[in-house]
Amino acid sequence: MFESYLFPIAYAFMAFPVAALFFTLPFLVVQYRRHGYINKVRAFVLYLFLLYLMNAVFLVMLPLPATRHNPPLSAGTMQLVPFNFIQDILKETSVVKGVPSTYLHLLKERAVLQVLFNVLLTVPFGMLVRYYFRFGPLRCLLLSFLLSLFFEVTQLTGIYGIFDHAYRVFDVDDLMTNTLGGIIGFLAAEWLSGLLPRIEHLDKGVDLSAKRVSYTRRGLAFLFDIVICGVLLLICNMLRIPGAYFVSTGLYFMLLPYLTGGCTFGKWLVRIRLSDNPGAHGRSKPGSGRSTDRDRVDGGLGARSVGDTNSGKAYGGLKAGSEAGADSSDRVYRWLKARREDTAGGPVGTTDAGSGSVADHPDQVSTVRISLLPLILRYGLLYWVLFGLNRMLAFSSSDLPGIQRMLLGMCVFAVDLWFFIHLIKHLFQKDSLLFYEKISKTQHKIMWKPSTRADGEKA
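RE: above sequence
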């Protein structure tokens, strides 16, 4: 009896890594959009829930018929008499009334074990529905019943037409015992809450503005962005636009973030944006006795706008240390500043000390623009130089003589190897920027607008 249950459970555990792989992408997107970060307890509970559902489905579905053309069940496909399991127990039991020593035999009999396992099947479901989703008893009752109904209908239809006939009986007793198990799990969730942190308290005290943007988050955004940019590249090639690769990457990774305040679709999806790196731009040192035109202009404003800050930071890196370089940088800054104020009709996106940064409020991001030059520098190095060399080797090297093609291949290999080592090194370093981020003086910021969450259960 027990072997028939262990067989589906073993298959569920073997299939879990594959299911978890497909589950991870939507899980990350939902967590980043809903909570702003990945919480380890929340991730553990959700993957545990996935493992449970797989075990439940495999226990219900397996073993499958030997062929798709299975014969119909001889005893019929539906059992609609409630509490029919009591007659099955009385019919098959070896218990003798008045002889207590025979009562233990109940725990070994098929009919009793089947009822117990049907109850236990949905106990974890009820526990997780209450603990994680904070549903009340009515919703738990309904969801447990619907889950059981899904199991029974799947068996009745031969897994929705895959098999010619039903290979298990649709049993109303299973609906009752499964639903009972869900309610028992709901009641036992208080015990689970004592072992794990309360789910509604996981985000208390979390300061998203202090969290670094992980490479997992950036990689997820890159995955969506590269697919969309590939479609744009295909369109440019179909339209026979000269330099289609440079046009598509320039439009998507440079112009689009400039117009949307540092966002591409992938970045928006995981709630991050590009901004100027405040730690990468120098000002005149205290006590140096020298103040630049930019310092004097900023000091006269009292409160600077976010748009001014972006311009000042983005072009602060133009100073080369000489007086001529500093004066040139200041002139560029003042020109951009005047252009922006003329365009916006005044300072854009002004914040004060108590309002928080605009990057923390997604609905305000559209009013803030990162400067175009840092974007061109950032993504020009990545897509036009680094990826461009690989593209040249892949598509244009056939037109080069043998020696030049070999030299190009060696150069691209050396650059790729250096970048790979550079990337791996920075994956394990906190608060570290990649080379093109340091040169362009840009960084990622988390976009998040705090919301009030109810701590109570949902009815």
